[in-house]
Amino acid sequence: MSTVQISAADVNKLRQQTGAGMMDCKKALVEANGDFEAAVDLLRKKGQKVSAARSGNATSEGLVSIAVSADGTNGKLVALACETEPVSKVEDFRNLAQAVLAAAVANNPATTEELSAIALEDGRTVAETITELTGKIGEKIVIQEYVNISGEKIVSYIHSNGKMGVLVVFEGANGADITEAGKDVAMQIAAMNPVAVDKDGVDPATIEREIEIAKDVIRQEGKPEEMVEKIAAGKLNKFYKDSTLLNQEFVKDSSLDVRKFLDNTVKGLTVSAFKRVQLGA
């Protein structure tokens, strides 16, 4: 019997992260001795529909800003986060977001740490400016994520709420204008949230986790043990189809997967990398 005390706040946090019912969340947390990731797996194994969302971040609001170079070979994304939506709409906050992005474009920093150390026009660093605005507004402000990505052709997308941005690296365009197709793929990434470009990009730990969950569910369904491996392999292939970009069904034409859509656009066109950033997730 577990001796871990599960609070109502813990239960509510898991419920927000997964979308599962309150009592199911409480039972899962008790069974997992308070381990949230283990509780998520338990809910999945029991057939609960679990969201991939991972909130729990105090700075869940803010603004995502993107700049792509004129030649389309580099993209930069800055996610400036705050605690509440009203602050994200304040002029000082939005001006700061643009100033940080401009500093990134002008100086090409590789990391968030390098970006934070850049001096702005008034001589103060990005970090110092963020600290000052935090004191002025009275709310935590942080650079939640900074992305600096290069390739043959970069296409970007920002969701209408300003809280999600996508950068996609395309290879094989061979000088063709792929702006429209690229935007379609970027929007696909925003909507479908793939875990990798293709099968070989999936983290081995994720694959192992999916296989173990599948096996557990199959056994609970009473399938013969000799069939478990084969059925689990089929479920893993379904995971690849649902969760890796090139194998996903193309949202705008269900008769194609994304790989085929790109190849139809320009022979050999593909995605080599992407980055999807969402505030509050």
TrEMBL record:
Sample GO molecular function, one term: translation elongation factor activity
Keywords: Cytoplasm, Elongation factor, Protein biosynthesis
CC annotations in GO: cytoplasm
Every Translation elongation factor EFTs/EF1B dimerisation domain range: 76-280
Stated role: Associates with the EF-Tu.GDP complex and induces the exchange of GDP to GTP. It remains bound to the aminoacyl-tRNA.EF-Tu.GTP complex up to the GTP hydrolysis stage on the ribosome.
Superkingdom to which the source organism belongs: Bacteria
Protein's gene: tsf
Predominant localisation class: cytoplasm
Pfam families hit by this protein: EF_TS
Name listed for the protein in its UniProt record: Elongation factor Ts
Database matches in SUPFAM superfamilies: Elongation factor Ts (EF-Ts), dimerisation domain, UBA-like
Membership in a protein family: Belongs to the EF-Ts family.
CDD domains with a match to the protein in the record: UBA_EF-Ts (cd14275)
UniProt subcellular location: Cytoplasm
